[in-house]
Structure prediction request, 248 residues.
Amino acid sequence: MNNIYLGIKFALSYFTILPIGFKEGDDLSHSRVLSTMLYTLPFIGILLSSLAIGVFLLTEPLGWLGAILSAVAYMVLYGFIHTEAIFDVTDALYAAHSGKDPYLVIKEPTVGAMGVLYGVSFLILKIAALATLLMHHLFWEFVAIALISRLSLVWLIKSYTFRSSFVSQLRESLTLTTLLLLSGLTTVLGFWFLSFPFIALLGGGVLVSFLIVFLTRKSLGFINGDVLGMTLELVELTLLFAVLRLWS
Prediction:
């Protein structure tokens, strides 16, 4: 039971900026801790999107300014941990095209011009899309998108081999049975609030995530944690556009 508790805390500390502390003797490498961390990830999406919606409800009298502030708050709450991956993967993709080793480039602490251009372009699009979604009061759709993007990552981790010791360790901690139960639980939860549109979003989100990883691995020759972060962001942006096009 303590390992489950540690796994939840580990998920909160790793995937959010919420202040979470650990004792010196806590073993965060235990397989139960790591699996719980991943199984908690979709619910982290629910938490962060709910907090961002709360910010919007408080700042809604400011109009678009409140919506933009809330959209930025959503990304700030997860510390841009997934967003920065877009910068790194873009640089690696261009390095691969020019004959350089993309793995060395993706691990560099600096970022090149192409990474900045694509990363900033993505930020503008996501902030605009999220702000528009909030202005239309599509709150349940926002929560669903945050959940689906993170559930997709858990499936990707289980389905692929990664050039990352940490992600490989996470993969080994997952069991297919528990992952199916998690998927069933989140599907029932999403269907309860959004009915059949949630199923469409879930199917689309998972399909887009696998497509992104397939194409990225084909271009780079490997996938790692940065590819996962980029995938989450692109899935969210895709679903945001889909919801705004079909629901607003």
The mean pLDDT is 93. The first helix runs from residue 2 to 15. The CA atoms of residues 118 and 124 lie 10 Å apart.
